[in-house]
Amino acid sequence: MILDTSAGELLPLAFALAATGAISGLLAGIFGVGGGAVIVPIVDLVLAALGYDDSVRMHLAIGTSLGVIVPTSFRAFMAHRRRAAINMEVLRSWLVPVPLGVGLASFVAAVSTGVQLRATFACLAFLLSLKLIFNLKAGRVSERMPGWPVRALAGIVVGFLSALMGIGGAVLSMTYMTMFGRPIHEAVGTAAAIGVLVAIPGALGYMVAGWGEPGLPPFSLGYVNLLAVAVMIPLSIAVAPYGVRIAHMMSRRQLEVAFGLFLLTVAVRLGVTLFA
């Protein structure tokens, strides 16, 4: 953990993180996402502008994103639980597989370079952008959810890919559930609960993975920056309603295309940096 609190380093970092929280909250409100897909590329860009080394930037962006998602995913989980919109059978069956996948992702992150993590995020963002822009829907495979071991393996994959991207896993878990005949509202509610299973062990895993690493910003616990978490959560929550207002001026299809174009831009920018 680094606690270098010199004003010359701390003030620009705090200001940049505040701006990041506001931007991510606005975009999250517009596009209806948990924030991870927005936070990771913006934090990576901010850290690059502030001169932090490439070897820690993407790790920090992903770990910090998971830290920010912890309270927001828990809040969403409790709200959906009150509405009885969670498939408890699926949730119970993923209590071990999803955190197991998250743990594997934390280990992979610990031994991966920033370039490798950036390439992974870029590829997954690119695929998701195509899905949104071209309105590609996963076909319904069955009217029944698969049992063991298929469901357990799916949980591991959801946890692994989510933790590698720094997202709550809503898109992945919702796609899986709707492929097997579950109603969309049930899939959304369960996805919020899955976000808790991803975010908490994910944040802890990235803390452990980055413990003692040199070159981290002030107030970093491993690859989770506590200053970023403290600054970004209230600002993103405060700004999100303005994004929601903008969203209500657009159709669902316009939102999908807009978010797809955002992800495509992120993927291309990250791809360009890989060859810079």
From TrEMBL:
The keyword Glycosyltransferase does not apply. Its main location: membrane. It is a multi-pass membrane protein. Keywords: Cell membrane, Membrane, Transmembrane, Transmembrane helix. The chain crosses the membrane at residues 12-40, 60-78, 90-111, 148-176, 188-209, 221-243, 255-275. InterPro entries: TM_pro_TauE-like. The keyword Transmembrane applies. Signal peptide: none annotated. One of its GO terms (cellular component) is plasma membrane. It is found in: Cell membrane; Membrane. Belongs to the 4-toluene sulfonate uptake permease (TSUP) (TC 2.A.102) family. PANTHER family: MEMBRANE TRANSPORTER PROTEIN HI_0806-RELATED. This is Probable membrane transporter protein. It comes from Propylenella binzhouense.
